[in-house]
Amino acid sequence: MNQEQKFLPRHDLDRLLQQLKEESYNCLGPVVRDGAIQYLPITDSSDLPAGVELDQVPAAYQLEFTDGDRLFNWSNGPQALKPLLFRPRENIWQVQRDSSGNLAFSQADESVEPTAVIGVRACDLAALELQDRHFLVPGAEDPHYKKRRDSLLLIGVDCSQPSDTCFCVSTGDGPDLRSGFDLAMTELEDGFVLRAGTKRGQKILDALNLSAATETQLQQVAIQSEQATARQRRLLPDAGVQKLLLQRPEHPHWQNVAERCTACGSCTSVCPTCFCFSEHSETNLDASVSQQVREWSSCFIPNHSNSHGHPVRADIASRYRQWLTHKLAGWQEQFGRSGCVGCGRCISWCPVGIDITQEVNKLVEDTG
Amino acid sequence: MNGDINLPREAVITERIQDSQDTFTMRLSVSGVDRFSFLPGQFNMLYLYGVGEVPISIVPDGDSHNSFDHTIRVVGRVTNGLGELQPGARVGIRGPFGRSWPIDMAKGRDLLLVTGGLGNAPLVGVMEHLVKQRDEFGHVDLLHGVKQDAELIWHDRYQKWATLPNTRVLLTADNPSPDWSGSQGTVVDLFSQLSITPQNTTAMLCGPEVMMLAAIERLRGMGVVDSNIWVSLERNMQCGMGKCGHCQMGPKFVCKDGPVFCLSEISGYFGKKGI
C-alpha cells in the first residue's frame, strides 16, 4: 500500500494539471466566483482558492480569505457534480415537421469532451454513485447523462475541513474518499499525497514519476482524517428511520416544519442526489422545429404532483414530507440506500436554516 | 426501439372516432414498424407536435399487430390539440410503459372488473383476452359506471362482452336519461347485485380514486383480501420510465412500478392525503 501512495510537492501541482492537458482533458477545479466555491475551468494552480476557508452554518455560507497556502481547505460549494452530468436545463431531442406534417425525431446534438474535475469530495462521489444508479439503470440509460459520465476523470480530495453543517461521517460517505475516484489526493502543508483508484488514475500517477510518500506524511494523512472526522457533530439517525418515516405521515412535526419552510426549492437544487425534472416543448417561429427541453424540477413546486389539474401534495407539509421521506426512505426501496450523503448543503442554503438532521431526529424520537 | 430511450417515434392517425361529446379515439400505427407489442394496462406517452406529451392507456385494435387505439378525454392543452387532429396527421409515441394487469396470475380464477368513467380503457385489453381465451377463467363480472348515460362509450364492445359465456356485464349511470336500460347509481352500488366467491376472485379496478377506494372498502367487506385486488393508478407521469420523479407515491414510481399495482403493495400509501 505504502509504495502506491506518492507525494507531489505543492510547487509541482501544475505538473499534474499539465499532465491532464497532455492527455487532452479539459480541467475543471474549485474557483471562487460570486462568493462561493464552484467547479469551473482552470488553466493552472493559481486559479485554485489558496488560503480560502469556509464557514457554513444553517442559512449561511461565508468564505474567509486567509494568507495560508492550502488550496482545498474548505468543505464544499453549492453544487456537487450534478450540474455537470444532469444539466439544469438541456435539449434532449428535437423534432422537425415538414410541409406534409411528417415528423422526424432526432437526439439533440452535443459534443462532449474529456473533462477532468479536480477537488471532488467524498460526498460528491457518493452522490454521483447514487445519480448513476438512477440515470444509468441497465436497459434505461439516459444517453445524455451517460455520454458526459463517460467523459469524466475524477480527482478527489480528502476533506480536511468539514463545515459545521457537514455530516458525511454519520451517513458513512466521508470525510475521506471511499470510492468512485480515478485519483485521490490528501492535501498536507507542503504538498499532496496521491493514490490511484482506477487504471486511468494510475496512468497519470505513473507519468508524474513521483517518489513514495514517507511514513511521516502518511501519519499526517491519518491524523488529518481523524481530526476531520472528529469535527463533525451532526447525526442523521440510521437504523429504522425508513420504517418510522413511512409510518408517520400524520406526525405533527411535519406541520411544524411547514410553518418555517418557504417551499423555495433551494434544498432540492443544491442536493447532489435530487433528480426530478420536467419537460416542455419550445417551437421555433415558423413552427418547423420543436425542441424538447428538460429542466430540473422540485417536489416543492406546487404543480410537481399535478394530477387532473390539481396537486396531489397541496400544502407545504406534504411537500416537505415527500422530500424528506423520499430522500431517506423512498431511496432505500428504489436504489438500495438512503439518498442523503451528508453534504449539508440543504442546511446552509436553506434561507430559513431548516436542518434535516434536527428535523429527522424530532420525527423519529417523538412518538407523535 | 432506437438507442435513445427519450426519443419518440412517429405514428400516423389512421382513423378518428368521436366516442362521446368530450371523448374521442385515435387509431394509430407507428411509422415503419410491422408490429407494436404491448400488454393490457400499459400506456404510451403521446406527443402533440410543439405542445407536449400526455400518458394515455393503450387499447387494442382487434387482432392488429401494428395498429392500436388511444381513447382520450379532452381535459387540457395537449388533449385538446390531439382532439383537433384528423386521419393522416402525425403524432409522437414513446412506449409502451408500465406494468400490465396480472392476467397470468388470475388464470383459473373468477374475475371482477370494476371501472368508472374512462377507467374502462386500460381494461379493454383484459376483456379482449377473455374473448379469445374465455375458458382460462371462471365466472366474470364486469361493472362499469358513468355519470350520465351519454358518457357511455363502446356500446358494441359491452354488447359483445355480455354474450360471452358465464360473463355478466352490469352498467350504471348516476344520472340516467329515461331511455337508459342499465342501473341507476354508482358502480359501487352494483356490488349489491354480485354473488362472488371471495377467495376465488381477482378484482381489477380502474377509475377515479374515490371510486376505487369505495370499491376496495366493499371488496374487503365481502372478504376479498388485498393480495387479490389490483388497481390502475393515475399520477403526474412525464417521462414514463421512473426518471422524472413526478409520479411518485411513497417509494413507488407509478409509471414504472405501476400503473397497475396489487393493493397489498401500496395499501400504506394509496388514498392517504398528500402522499
Question: What does this molecule look like?
Answer:
- The complex is a heterodimer of chains A (368) and B (275).
- Chain A is an alpha+beta fold and 368 residues long.
- Chain A folds into two domains: 2-87 and 111-231, no CATH class; 241-277 and 299-365, no CATH class.
- Chain A is built from 13 helices and 16 strands.
- Chain A has helices at 13-22, 82-85, 122-135, 143-150, 168-171, 199-208, 215-231, 241-247, 252-260, 266-270, 316-335, 345-348, 356-365, and strands spanning 6-9, 26-33, 36-41, 52-57, 60-65, 89-97, 103-107, 115-120, 152-157, 183-188, 191-196, 211-212, 277-283, 289-296, 306-307, 310-311.
- In chain A, the strands form four sheets. In chain A, strands 3-2-8-9-10-11-1-12 form an eight-stranded mixed sheet, sandwiched between helices. Chain A has a four-stranded antiparallel sheet with strand order 7-6-14-13, with no helix packed on it.
- In chain A, a hairpin with a 2-residue loop joins β15 (306-307) and β16 (310-311).
- In chain A, α8 crosses α11.
- Helix content of chain B is 17%, strand content 32%.
- Chain B has two domains: 9-97, Beta Barrel (Elongation Factor Tu (Ef-tu), domain 3), CATH 2.40.30; 110-266, 3-Layer(aba) Sandwich (Rossmann fold).
- Chain B has 275 residues and is α/β, with parallel strands linked by helices.
- In chain B, a hairpin with a 3-residue loop joins β3 and β4.
- At the A-B interface, β6, β7, β13, β15 and α11 of A face β7 and β14 of B.
- Distance from N terminus to C terminus of chain B (CA atoms, Å) equals 34 Å
What percent of the residues of chain B sit in helical stretches (DSSP H or I)? 10-25%
Query: Number of folding domains of chain A?
Result: 2
Low-confidence stretches of chain B: none
Query: In percent, how helical is the residue content of chain A?
Result: 25-40%
Report the CATH C-level class of the largest domain in chain B: Alpha Beta
Give average pLDDT of chain B, whole number. 96
Largest interface, chains and sizes: A-B, 55 and 42 residues
CATH superfamily of the largest domain in chain B: Nucleotide-binding domain of ferredoxin-NADP reductase (FNR) module
Total of helices of chain B = 6
Name the helix and strand elements of chain A from N-terminus to C-terminus, one letter apiece: EHEEEEHEEEHHEHEEHEHHHHEEEEHHH
Judged by helices, strands and strand pairing, the structural class of chain B is: alpha/beta
Distance between the termini of chain A: 51 Å
Low-confidence sequence ranges of chain A = none
Give the helix tally of chain A: 13
Rounded to an integer, what's the Rg of chain A over CA atoms?
22 Å
Work out the oligomeric state of the chains in this entry. heterodimer
Largest sheet of chain A: 8 strands, mixed
